[in-house]
From TrEMBL:
<dbReference type="Pfam" id="PF04075">
    <property type="entry name" value="F420H2_quin_red"/>
</dbReference>
<dbReference type="GO" id="GO:0016491">
    <property type="term" value="F:oxidoreductase activity"/>
</dbReference>
<protein>
    <submittedName>
        <fullName>Nitroreductase family deazaflavin-dependent oxidoreductase</fullName>
    </submittedName>
</protein>
<dbReference type="InterPro" id="IPR004378">
    <property type="entry name" value="F420H2_quin_Rdtase"/>
</dbReference>
<dbReference type="InterPro" id="IPR012349">
    <property type="entry name" value="Split_barrel_FMN-bd"/>
</dbReference>
Amino acid sequence: MTARYVKPTAFDGAFNGAVALLTRLGLSFAGSRVLAVRGRTSGQWRTNPVNPLHVDGARYLVAPRGHTQWVRNLRAAAEGELRKGRRVEAFRAVELADAEKPAIIREYLRVWAWEVGRFFEGVDASSSDERIREIAPGFPVFRITPI
């Protein structure tokens, strides 16, 4: 099985660029942050806007477009930064097993479906646990903790 990846459209690129710019200026778009992770081969900082999620006192990053470059880099580095304006939060990341994902994906869809719901293959926050478990392998989820 190949890893699920949804290539960004021109609209996605423009939207992500605008969100990233606003977030870098300190104007968070609905809680967005700029994720900074060292590239797994270059070692250079790579950035991408993300939507951190808070569930039961823990924080998570969900990859709605699947196994993207930021996901691969975060797996390799196991740490990164969330940035908003001049504020930088360093963190460690642990990827969740598929069995741990349904509650997190459900909450992510409840909070962020208006922005990323189209990537979830017809699944929404009201979908059954069984259906969410079926799609879970295609949606990497990381629990993040401050360093």
